[in-house]
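User: Hi! I'm working on a homework problem where we have to compare a predicted structure to a textbook description. Could you give me the structure for the chain below?
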Amino acid sequence: MRDGLSRLRPEQRELLGRWLPDVTVLADLSWGLVETTVLDVASEQGRLIVKAGGAADHHLVRELRAHREWLDPWVSTGHAPVLLFADEAAKVLVTRRLPGVLVEGTSAQDDPDTYRQAGSLLARLHGQLCVEDPEWNGRSRARVERHLAAPHRIDPGIVSRVRAELSTWPGGGAPVVPTHGDWQPRNWLVDDGVVRIIDFGRADLRPPIEDFVRLARQDFARDPALETAFLEGYGTDPREPVAWRRALVGEAVGTAVWAHGVGDEEFERFGHQLLGELYR
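Assistant: Happy to help. Predicted structure tokens:
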């Protein structure tokens, strides 16, 4: 499967050839909906993961920042991959491959212990640093406004209600911590009962509740026992109701608009469902 390297841009292939001259592509793990290429490869250095971004990609820069600044508490215990090579300008990196299979779609996705471990791991990430972002609330509101200005198929009545609610959102800042940005079972691996973490392309400094949103709309909604276990692992519940409402609205609008933009109709319907539940 060396042809999998053809998905990389020339400068990325040149770097990979210097880092891993004997590389063999075993599988292409890319989603296909975004311009990030993910390859499962082998070389004399072992089983590795190659991630490469397109020219307009911003996820690789975030991923590299996470590796360099925030992942040590997980890497040191084998819960996140070790970064081996990286070039920020070329938007390509190589990490060691973690053992395990994705939690999503397995029995582990219904096991409270999975969520208890995930909560404990997230607390370790969030607990490293807390600073004030003086513009967080204003940027959050502006992001929702940008989404609503983009092409979408959200019901006009709901759009009007979202805009009315946005006008009441506060400006100013909020405390922010290192967050994963896509904290859910599709980015967790399980290996002999141990949960490990992958995919840091959305990592950034945000309020901690932002890492609760995707679990709340999916796994917690279908089984409250999973939420209970997660909170046991995390140690507290940071979801203050007013800020939590804003996070849910922003996530629902972003889901509907992003999914429409990439042509994922099933996910788009899910975004519309979330908005319908928020604006009954």
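For your comparison, note the following. The chain has eleven helices and eleven strands. The radius of gyration is 19 Å. Good luck with the assignment!
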